Description:
Two copies of one chain form a homodimer.
Chain A (H helix, E strand, L loop, with lengths): L1 H25 L3 E7 L5 H8 L8 E7 L4 H7 L5 E5 L8 H9 L8 E5 L16 E7 L6 H4 L1 H6 L2 E5 L11 H11 L4 E4 L8 H17 L1
Parallel strand pairs in A: 1-4, 1-5, 2-3, 2-4, 5-6, 6-7
Amino acid sequence: MRIELKKHVLHANNELAAELRDTYKSHGVYCINMISSPGSGKTSLLEKTIPLLGGYNMAVVEGDVLTERDAERVRKTGVPAVQIETSGACHLDAPMIQNAIAELQMPDNGFLFIENVGNLVCPTSYDLGEAAKVVVISVTEGDDKPGKYPAIFMNAKVCVLNKTDLLPYTPFDVESFYADVKAVNKDIEIIEVSCQTGEGLDKWADWLKNRRNEFLAD
Amino acid sequence: MRIELKKHVLHANNELAAELRDTYKSHGVYCINMISSPGSGKTSLLEKTIPLLGGYNMAVVEGDVLTERDAERVRKTGVPAVQIETSGACHLDAPMIQNAIAELQMPDNGFLFIENVGNLVCPTSYDLGEAAKVVVISVTEGDDKPGKYPAIFMNAKVCVLNKTDLLPYTPFDVESFYADVKAVNKDIEIIEVSCQTGEGLDKWADWLKNRRNEFLAD
């Protein structure tokens, strides 16, 4: 019964996600669904990415169990942000996104960033109509995450490896991490960044611009 | 319907958890349920704690979505460990623990450590019969976690603040973290540790021994 109900819930979610996908496409909006553990630095990554995408329309949907803090941080960059407080739920779903974007002006021909609830497991199952899932991992979490949480690595188009400025102080094995990620998903790209030093952020911004161009040409 | 089903599932879980609690008590076993984000250092904490509790019987139940890696790491300390692979599920529940401890000898008059799936949201709702929930937070995750994920801070008896050796390299505000934790739960204890340098681990081991003594005297 639990499995049947879950199937039913996911099916309804996916139907709405397909509608959202059409909406984004009709506005030329490249939508990113960012998934990570709590504290991997998704909001910091957004704060640093937005100035590198000057000239593009942008909007942000923030997901958290509680608090408006992340949306407030993003708004300081000048980009509109809507906060979803899930009040206990461990992931965002398509109906939440539908409600949130009703409060936003569509960032025509630009980017919609969705920052999911900090959780490396549950958000992976819920399609939000995004063009790409992004998994963010910080080096302080350890290099063993791809083997332990393979679903998100299988489903993401890109892995942002964050907090590389802390590599000298942590027992993170970069080579072993790459091998483990590629064993799960050989097509995924890995981009190393540090939101503290700014290293690698240009590469990440280029990835976004290039994928958006491909998406619009598609 | 979803809410009703969740209530039913939790009720069944809690009935079994009450039985497990009686089992632990009858063996004089102090059971700890460790909850954190992925990569906060729960397994490292166990590896460092076990040698400090020499003389006590111990056993470990490891929870992960996939892989036997954490149980293998714990077994190297000489303590028996059973790995639960949840195959996608985002938390441990009481039936999983019942199956796992059937494979273990009860650590009479000692400690049973349960390391939950790395997830700061879902595991909080599932009673495993433990005497205490422990929330582990690493300083690299940021000081804003108590406000964003209050449920686990409300339900835990102690918060282990890990990776304090990285404080000089991270924008973590210790004072603000303490204030936010205490705003959610004024009775929770906070113990600062570094599994890299060993700092604070004696205080954590003393906490475990003292709580165990109180539990047995109760």
